[in-house]
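DATA SHEET
Item: assembly model
Revision: 1
Owner: S.N.
Input lines:
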Amino acid sequence: MKIENWTEKRKLAPRGGVFVAGLVDLILMLAVFMGIWYVFMDPRGILRMYTPMYGYAYVQWFLVSVLTVHFVFRLCPFQNSSFLTKTPPLIKGLLFSIVAAALMLLIVDGIFKIVLGNLAVPYFSEETLLSLKQNAFTAREYAHQAITMYGGITALFIPLWIIHLNNWPACEIHSYKGYLTSFFIIFALAGFGFLILFHPHMGVLFYPWQTWTAVVPWWEDYAQTLSGNFCLGGVMCWTAVMWIFNVTFEGYPFKKIKAQPWRALAGIFGTLLVAVIFFKVFLLLQDLVWGVPIRGSQLLMAVDWRYLHSGECAMFMLLIALVWGFYFDNWPRKYTFEANVLIRFVIICVLTFAFYVFYYRYNPEILGQQAGYSNPLQYPLAATSLIVALLLAHNWFFDLTPGYKVVNKDEFANSSEKQ
Amino acid sequence: MDDMNRRDFIKGASVGTLGAFLASGGIASTFLRDRLIPKPAKPSVEIGELKSIHVKCITETSWFDNYVQQQDFKKAGGALVQQYDVKFSHTGVKEGFEGDNAGGYSALIEFEFMNGDRKKVLLDTGWNNKWMTKRFEEEGIDAMLRSGEIDTLIISHDHYDHYWGIQTTLQWKPDITLYIPDSFRKESYQLLSGADFPKPPISNTVPFKGELKKFALKKVHKIFPGVSLVAFDCPCGRGVFGEEVLVCNVAGKGLVTISGCCHMGLLSLLNFTKNNFIGGDKIYGVYGGVHISPYDNWNPANDDLVRSINNYHVEKLGVNHCTGYITVEKMIAAGVPVIKGTARNKTKRDLYLGNGDEIFF
């Protein structure tokens, strides 16, 4: 029997209560995160890929790959019910994680660096930029910045496409043909978004400006900066809002609309509007704490950094919302829906603030990053994106083991026997 | 829950859109922001005046080959690796000094006070002791240190290219008075006492014997008449945090800033000066590195700076070092009054003040 939507059909039960299970899972996931961070990213660690953009590009695409393996490909070609129910979660999770990592390498090193970087757009390849006399540091950072930005917008478009457009056309073609078509549609749409939102930034990243191949950033007059951080912050806020609606608010209110295209229109534009509000609230909060930014300033007072930091704040919130939703089963659930959602949202806001304070107090010791809120050479997005990727993988690939276990395996076994 | 019908949907969507639009507009509205965001206080820092300032660039070439320096950081694991954990290239560098890529940043500053007295101080002490010794001897700094004519060394921040050449100064005056931001790394204190770090490698064989004055971050410290040190709590990269900048008030001309790298950002410095110092509405001059494109790297946000700097009406910009040639080319194109140099003593181009060049405020 083929199971296309395993994570919707499985039923998870905590071992020893929701909070104990949640804490066990959280500690385990963070331990795995720390191990991966130390080996691959930490500037004091082994491979030291967090330069920052070099490592961040791989993290961003690992996140996209996890989304792709679960959301777009629906775990294809491993949809067999006996495999999904009988394979130990650890083995199954490792297999899916390896597939996601392989996809990440294929996209970053294959599609971007080799294909696009050599045949289409030089700034996608460090080697091509080096051959064009860009210096060692900027070649690496620029190339991976472009790859990361493409990944950022893909990570937005995948859930947009899946949640609000039901992964069309894979929803009608239930095979790898449908999944691949969906993937290429999303990838192409992300490219379209990248061209509008980030390509102008890349155009003015070089000296002299490449105004023959990219327009001068169209947002300059409104945003008071030429930097693409304006768009990046917005994309991050939109991504976070979409997930918060989907996890914390359990898909409501958009879930109530069944008919397309109304559901898609409401979901896409509704989350966009709320994202704009989030974006502005985060900007206002920063203005209250640090004062109004000044165009051309650096660090805390830089206009472009404030936009970026709004996105970073949104990612902190997304991370907490996912932790609460996945590990602590979106507690509470016993009151009315509205009360549950309100309490959850307040909890997420409070925990986000606590995590924000903790992160900026201890990240130099824990992650090996520089002290201070604003630093042009580092982004909390890399660490938060890696945690989000691991959270999603833990839930979708590892069935939240060991804190939780699947309790309805027999249903699939029975239906398989009947067939 | 039941499916929504089209009318309900349109009704809900309209209300939602209107509500979101109003909420978003309300949050962004000038009305709300004006009431929530505190107004900046009136400038209140009074530092007095001095008659003039003369700055001589001893060396602004912190390294001689950008590519080699960047490769060093790349091999070490990128720009976030802390500086004592980086192996730098000291041999075989074609553009380097005797094959060494390390140079350094240092400036001699002479203050002329209102009563006619003069005082000479050093800002930073560079990196490569051989290069620094050569430059100090060429500009007569060695004799000034020996005679006590220079009795104060101000370290803007403990980055390798501003501080690791401490032995050069101490070899002629180990009892010099040293001004540092109180955010020094522990390794930097060890170096001052005579430690040896084999990885970069860097060492100091002349332990410091003078008075050490540490300046708290986030404060303005008046050090001489008309002269203050402002210690900013800014990240500087490579594991270094905090930088102090001189802000001086030249009679009849206006305020002058003198920086090592200006990691807090040039416009942040100018705004701080404008908003806090009495007389801040007239910023006459700027000297030093202003950290924009040290490796001739770029970021579109830097264009924001180039497009905004003229709003501050600074009359003399003696920028160099980590400002970067690309930035200066863009500044000149934008009509910013950057003072040109003479391109000698291993400074490559005459676009800005280089090694041995001078500026008067």
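QC remark: Chain B has a mean pLDDT of 93.
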